[in-house]
Amino acid sequence: QVELVESGGGSVQSGGSLRLSCAASGYTISEYCVGWFRQVPGKEREGVAYRDQGGTIRYLFSEKGRFSISQDNAKNTLYLQMNNLTPEDTAMYYCAADPDYIASGRPYCTFELSGQGTAVTVSS
User: Fold this and answer.
1) Do 14 and 85 touch, CB atoms closer than 8 A?
2) Each residue of 75-102: pLDDT tens digit?
3) Which residues contact 81 (CB under 8 A, 6 or more apart)?
């Protein structure tokens, strides 16, 4: 069974940093179709930092330079380092992937598999 489990969220003050982790089981985190998304109640999920189907890292425009994505293949874990956080970064953060991308023949990732999320709250 494929599972993604996020951790590392919490409450920080504006300007602070957090590192989120996403541990994968039943699936080997690859160099494509994996990343981080966030959602605020009443709004659509948005991609924060993710690897697309070609392996290119895409960042949400406003986060580029403050957020970075990395992975530890030995631990099969994906990370999101978030620096200089602002209250606008308050959201539920999800790790998501498309483990079946290659087998499916889809032209693009769907990121349908995600964990339960980890909450990030930034106070001013």
Assistant:
1) yes
2) 999 999 999 999 999 999 999 999 888 8
3) 17, 19, 67, 68, 69, 70
